[in-house]
């Protein structure tokens, strides 16, 4: 797996992941464990002999820092990096900053579950996964995919839901399938693409 390589990594554990809070677009840093997860992801990729030509990430510090830590472990801190809010986490709107248990107490467990795990139902003031995909996928098609198809090896550090939007397209999953898909922090997902942009091989580097 060398050319036309696309690697997706969800950022390491954030301070609000640890506290069970809805994070969304709030700019929250990594925990010490999150730093360790990002570094471990970089070491796993290095052990596979993978190097990169370009990196993409969101504008949020937990993803940006995760990318930097992975590239540091890879010894590739000089590659071009592009940051764009199109890759930001899903905006949780009025849920942002709330403890998930407190949200269940306020709106009911069933309603919170619908907001979290449905494809096209958005929380108050926020985005659904469908809304998130509507900004992630054009950026992927216009900026990331052309780089991959030119033969570049591309590393993306982003978020659970922005990466779900990409995984849905790469693996041709239905809305029902993608909302059930868990994407672990710091776990590289490696895709090799054909010249027509379809996936020819997928490898997950779990802990």
What can you tell me about this protein's structure?
This protein has 207 residues and is of the alpha/beta class. It has one domain: 3-Layer(aba) Sandwich (Rossmann fold), CATH 3.40.50. Helices cover 43% and strands 14% of the residues. It has 8 helices and 6 strands, in the order E-H-H-E-H-E-H-H-H-E-H-H-E-E. It has helices at 15-18, 32-47, 61-74, 100-107, 109-117, 129-149, 160-170, 175-179; strands spanning 5-10, 54-57, 81-83, 153-158, 189-193, 199-204. It has a 6-stranded mixed sheet. The longest helix is centred in the last third of the chain and has 21 residues, at 129-149. The chain is globular, with a radius of gyration of 16 Å. The mean pLDDT is 95.
Concise summary:
The protein is globular. It has helices spanning 15-18, 32-47, 61-74, 100-107, 109-117, 129-149, 160-170, 175-179, and strands at residues 5-10, 54-57, 81-83, 153-158, 189-193, 199-204. It has 207 residues and is an alpha/beta fold.
Topology:
Elements: E1 5-10, H1 15-18, H2 32-47, E2 54-57, H3 61-74, E3 81-83, H4 100-107, H5 109-117, H6 129-149, E4 153-158, H7 160-170, H8 175-179, E5 189-193, E6 199-204
Parallel strand pairs: 1-4, 2-3, 2-4
Antiparallel strand pairs: 1-5, 5-6
Helix pairs in contact: 2-3, 4-5, 6-7
* Radius of gyration, taken over Cα atoms and rounded to an integer in Å: 16 Å
- CATH class descriptor: Alpha Beta
CATH level 3 topology: Rossmann fold
Written as H for each helix and E for each strand, in order along the chain, the element string is: EHHEHEHHHEHHEE
Name given to the CATH architecture: 3-Layer(aba) Sandwich
Alpha-carbon distance between the two ends: 20 Å
Net shape? globular
Provide the low-confidence segments as ranges: none
Portion of residues within helices:
40-55%
- Largest β sheet strand count, sense and barrel closure: 6 strands, mixed
**What's the rounded overall pLDDT mean?**
95
Number of continuous helical runs = 8
In total, the number of domains comes to 1
User: Per DSSP, what share of the residues sits in E-state strands of 2 or more residues?
Assistant: 5-15%
Give the strand tally: 6
- Helical/strand content category: alpha/beta
Q: Which strands sit side by side, in order, in the main sheet?
A: 3-2-4-1-5-6
CATH superfamily, by name, is Phosphoglycerate mutase-like
């Amino acid at each position: 797996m060398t050319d036309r390589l696309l690697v997706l990594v969800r950022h390491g554990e954030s301070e609000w992941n640890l506290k069970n809070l809805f994070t969304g677009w709030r700019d929250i840093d990594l925990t010490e464990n999150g730093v360790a997860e990002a570094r471990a992801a970089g070491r796993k990729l290095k052990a596979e002999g993978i190097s990169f030509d370009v990196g993409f990430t969101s504008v949020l510090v937990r993803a940006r820092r995760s990318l930097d830590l992975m590239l540091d472990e890879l010894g590739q801190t000089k590659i071009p990096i592009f940051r764009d809010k199109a890759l930001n986490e899903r905006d949780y709107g009025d849920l942002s900053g709330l403890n998930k248990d407190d949200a269940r107490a306020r709106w009911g467990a069933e309603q919170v579950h619908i907001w979290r795990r449905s494809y096209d139902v958005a929380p108050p003031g926020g985005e659904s996964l469908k809304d998130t995909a509507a900004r992630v996928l054009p950026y992927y098609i216009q900026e990331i995919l052309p780089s991959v198809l030119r033969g570049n090896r591309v590393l993306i550090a982003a978020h659970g839901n922005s990466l779900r939007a990409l995984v849905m397209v790469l693996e041709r999953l239905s809305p029902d399938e993608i909302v059930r898909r868990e994407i672990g922090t710091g776990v590289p997902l490696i895709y090799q693409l054909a010249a027509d942009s379809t996936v020819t091989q997928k490898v997950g580097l779990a802990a």
